[in-house]
Write a structure and sequence with these properties.
alpha/beta, Rossmann fold, 8 helices, 46% helix, binds NADPH dihydro-nicotinamide-adenine-dinucleotide phosphate
Length: 293
Amino acid sequence: MLPPRSVLITGASRGLGLEFVKQFLQVPTPPEFLFATCRNPDNAKELQEVAKSSSSITIMKLDVSEMNTIEEAKKLVESKVGAGGLNLLINNAGINKKVTLETVTPDMMLDTFNINVNGPLFTTKAFLPLLLQAAESSTPINPSSAVVNISTIVASIALNESTTYLEYRVSKAFLPLLLQAARSSTPSNPSSAIVNMSSIMSSIARTVTSDAVEYRVSKSALNMLTKILHNELKDKGIHVGCLHPGWVQTDMGTAKAPVTVSQSVCGCIQVMSNMNAENACVLTDYTGNPLPW
Ligand code: NDP
């Protein structure tokens, strides 16, 4: 998509959301308006520091589980962007309680669903008039309005099927990476392709356990929501897609994760900039690899 004039990110207080804010300031044509939203702006100290470096950043309160904060944020964005509308909404905020079939409770399911599914749904609905305004200048080849939902490979139903199927998908998807890695690697300096590959392999390995049942079910629902929104909005010039950011070193991903926030977000922004009518609604990882739903 075109370099977006305006971008809104949910969950920008830390992790991937904060890194999206930092990296959008570094792209060749940074957005004129960068709305960094979080549920407790007063506690988001690092975000406040980043905002001191650029007048394009507006920090706003937006708790994706509280409709009134979504509506207030929408009014503020509207007053700033004017007729140009909102070009890019990144539904990044999410939670993962990491519970198993043994420990999960009804409240945990509802709480997670509320933030991971209702959050992106009602945030997108609230900002739809502004996304439509931005879409008015879209062409089919180069959309000027998009919604990106941050999903995860561990919500893929296809990758939870038989081991044979898993092996088939892995070898098919990773053959080009393996060849690339073989060409550029040395024992002391493994290539980025190997790092990427090990990240996805680790994530796939994690899909076949019953861990994080509430998280994975909610993100599978987010994938379906992405399809529904895509089907509804594609003819109106808004692309809706979803991204797997890799297994990333954040509070959620833990320090054991193989991918840094910088690598992940750099890849995600690259994938977003290549988004078009054909590839928009495909579950894609941060390296641009399509993944089975
Ligand atoms: P973190 O736990 O590091 O950060 C989560 C962010 O979401 C925080 O900014 C948090 O805000 C915010 N948040 C939580 N609840 C709400 C809410 N009700 N309203 C607004 N914001 C909220 O996670 P990551 O940065 O790792 O994850 C970002 C996204 O990437 C998530 O959707 C996650 O599912 C997805 N993802 C992450 C992976 C990983 O390996 N890290 C892998 C695959 C997907 P606060 O500071 O107030 O708590």
